[in-house]
Amino acid sequence: MVKNKKILSLIMTTALMMGTLAGCSGGSKDAATSSSSGGDKTITVWSHMTSESEFPKLQELVEKWGKDKGVKVNCVDDKGKIQEYMQAANSSSAPDIMIGIPHDNLGTFQKAGLIAEVPSGLLDPSKYTSKGPIDAVTIGGKQYGVPYAQETVSLFINKDKVKEVPKSFEELVTKAKEPGVGFSYSVNALFYNLGFLTTQGGYVFKNNNGTLDPNDIGLSNEGAIKGLQFIQDLVIKDKLLAPDTTDDIAKNRFMSGDAAFYISGAWDTASAKAANINYEIAAMPTFGGKNVTTALGVQTAFVAEKSPNKDIAWDLMKYIQDNINPIIIDSGRIPVTKEGVESDAFKANKDMIAFAEQAKYAVPMPNIPEMQAVWTPAGNMLTAMTAGQQDPKTTGEEIVKQIKEGIAQQ
């Protein structure tokens, strides 16, 4: 789930600061080294793919490649903490390939010198649904991971309460005010609000041709303030949301039928089905006449910088890239390639089509370590703003001020 990514990033940043690059503990270490004896080449793949259906299929895929190439492949379903990669990276237990890593962790790995740059020509921008997946793995103008799945938020709609999908958020607000309609989402969480802040020209860190500048923060500019004003109005002026609306509260309002409109991700489709809600999912309505640039999360794979088998590992990586779509489509993920989202298998899942459409406009969450200084001040200041304790302009200025202070302490 995307909203857990910032937690994973924080774990890895902490692990990096520990500086204890010891051997990987527990079962993962044993599994990663058990087949490395002898003179034959062995490629070790650690999988952090979270769906239970994905690992067996990934294992079958990479072992087929190995059989065809005459290379032994050791595929490990790594159930340990993600920071074990940080600990194992400089040891003999390190994998050659890691798969299932949220893209916003790549900056921490790259800064520590743990991941290899993607060879020229492996990533073809013309094959992707948007520039977002490539941007997600780009650090300092260079690519350090291979994207394979993406996720963002869209609009859930209770069809028993609303017959037509609103074309704009302005129209949605008007409709939501009608008796028995309602609108809900996690109003103080930056992840769900980023689209409102960035659509009109705000940004977290300025992207200068593939290089994010942590010294240029755009969360207090005119565009961001427009978004903050809209968020505050939803609570104070329009009275559509309580100021303390969390993930769980927002979800419960939609699943109980109390709110007809709900912003969330694909992780909530199963709950909507279980609640017997007559729902549909649509790409986000426009905001201020523009498509909403929601936050994009991208699942990635990478090759370890210190792998002794880089050439073979990249050959396997290309094979994974070319053949992974059926695996992720079957587990309910959105492929990053046009071929994937245009396949009959993907189109058979109508819920995912809407998320794929919204993903075209989504902007990747920043992948540099400085992003860790963003989440807490943004959440705190949004909470103060929706409680009516400060205006949007002050909120934006305080967010930027506290982010800069946090970065200085990293």
Beta-strand percent range: 15-25%
Domain count, please report it.
2
The percentage helix is 40-55%
Distance between the termini: 26 Å
Predict the CATH topology of the largest domain.
D-Maltodextrin-Binding Protein, domain 2
Summed up, the helix count is: 18
Mean pLDDT: 90
What is the molecular shape? Answer: globular
Radius of gyration: 22 Å
The largest pleated sheet is described as: 7 strands, mixed
Level-2 CATH architecture of the largest domain: 3-Layer(aba) Sandwich
Low-confidence stretches: 1-39
CATH H-level name of the largest domain... which superfamily? Periplasmic binding protein-like II
Strand runs, count: 15
What class, by secondary structure content?
Answer: alpha/beta
Give the CATH class of the largest domain: Alpha Beta
Question: Could you describe the 3D structure shown?
Answer:
The protein has 410 residues and is of the alpha/beta class. It folds into two domains: 2-150 and 297-359, Periplasmic binding protein-like II (D-Maltodextrin-Binding Protein, domain 2, 3-Layer(aba) Sandwich), CATH 3.40.190.10; 154-295 and 368-404, D-Maltodextrin-Binding Protein, domain 2 (3-Layer(aba) Sandwich). Helix content is 41%, strand content 17%. The chain is built from 18 helices and 15 strands. The protein has helices at 5-18, 27-33, 54-69, 83-88, 106-111, 132-136, 169-176, 190-198, 222-235, 247-255, 269-274, 310-323, 325-330, 338-341, 344-347, 350-359, 375-386, 392-408; strands spanning 42-47, 72-77, 97-102, 138-139, 142-143, 146-151, 154-158, 183-184, 203-208, 211-218, 261-264, 279-282, 295-303, 334-335, 363-364. The strands form four sheets. Strands 1, 2, 3, 6, 13, 14 and 15 form a seven-stranded mixed sheet that branches. Strands 8-11-7-12 form a four-stranded mixed sheet. It has a two-stranded antiparallel sheet with strand order 4-5. Strand 4 and strand 5 (142-143) form a beta hairpin. The longest helix is centred in the last third of the chain and has 17 residues, at 392-408. Keywords: Cell membrane, Lipoprotein, Membrane, Signal, Sugar transport, Transport. One of its GO terms (biological process) is maltodextrin transmembrane transport. This is Maltodextrin-binding protein. Residues 1-22 form the signal peptide.
